[in-house]
Structure formats: structure tokens, C-alpha cells
Fold this protein.
Amino acid sequence: QVQLVETGGGLVQAGGSLRLPCAASGGTFTRVNMGWFRRALGKEREFVTEINWSGSSTYYADSVKGRFTISRDSAKNTVYLQMASLKPEDTAVYYCAARQRQVATYGYWGQGTQVTVSS
């Protein structure tokens, strides 16, 4: 059973940067792919980015490509979402998630952290 805890959310001005760490525990970190999702007020949850178990492959939603970077530190069992050039439309609750390598759906979720971008 994997437990995930996100931190690092907050209020930032448009154009600014923020880094969200997600600490994982209770499982084998190197066996899971890690992802970030977000849900804006009144909208559906959407995929943001994913990194595979080894860190060799990453995927991004078009809306964040070139501005967000996902990375992982296996020594710390932590995945990071580095966000730059933030826009007001990036305002959302950001969720860290994990899935087993051979499973298509995400089965483990963090509690979420609020990111608010002011214009």
C-alpha cells in the first residue's frame, strides 16, 4: 500500500514558479509510475504529467508542456513537480498519484495541495 503526501502549494503571482514535492511511503517506489493531476473549481480532474518508474520517460499535457517539469528522486522516495511561468488558469488542487507499472489506472492518491495563481 503506497501513501502519498503532497506539500509546497500556495499563492503565487502570474509568471512565478512553485515546486511541489510528493513523498511516497509504504511501498516500493521504484515499482510505480508517478503522476500529477489537478482539479480546478467546478471542473473535472485532469492529467498534468507522468514519469515512469525509472525516470527515463515523461509525459505532459499540452497545457503545461514547456512550463512544468516532473522528476523523481528514488533515494528520497519523492517525486517533484516544478512549475514555471504560472498562469491564473493553473489555479487548482494538485494531486500526486501512483500506479503499478503493469496497471493502466492510478490506484494511489495523495490528499492534494492548493495552488493559486493571482493575475
About this structure: The chain has a mean pLDDT of 95. The radius of gyration is 13 Å. The CA atoms of residues 5 and 23 lie 5 Å apart. The first strand starts at residue 3 and ends at 6.
